[in-house]
Amino acid sequence: MPYGKESKNALVKLIGGKSTKIYVYGQDQFERYVGDIYCDTVFIQEEMLRNGHAWHFKNYDRRPEFSAWERKARAARKGLWASRNPEKPWHWRRDERNERHDTIEWETLFAKVIACFVAVAERLFMGGILLARRNLLKLAILLGLMELVIIFMEQ
What we know:
Distance between the termini: 20 Å
Protein name: TNase-like domain-containing protein
Number of helices: 5
Radius of gyration: 27 Å
Structural class: mainly alpha
Strand order of the largest sheet: 1-2-3
Helix content: 55-70%
Number of domains: 2
Largest sheet: 3 strands, antiparallel
Keywords: Membrane, Transmembrane, Transmembrane helix
Oligomer: single chain
CATH architecture of the largest domain: Beta Barrel
InterPro entries: SNase_OB-fold_sf (IPR035437), Staphylococal_nuclease_OB-fold (IPR016071)
Shape: elongated
Number of strands: 3
Organism: Lolium multiflorum
């Protein structure tokens, strides 16, 4: 994820090895707990937003101070805002899910081609059957398909 490692490192600097308190104030649509995080007297969300290490996700929290902290970090080009066009994490996750889905489809196709190749090869070679021209052609086509699938998977 763009800027993900930097953001994690900033969070670790703030809370790493220290006790934190989470004041839970509700649950989201997925029944996950939502709350404010403090480490000693430091309000973690504020620090992360002020220094440009986090996005204010307005769907979950509409507090105006959160928007103001993000706006000031953007204006000062701090953290992730140093980039001209930072990618929103929820867009990145969506694209990653779609990319994984495409990869799974190719892996499924590849597995089907391999299974077909094995089935044809077993039929051709079981019982010492001689390879007729049409069987050789089928075998060549299957090998060509396998090669194409491998090429596409490497891209």
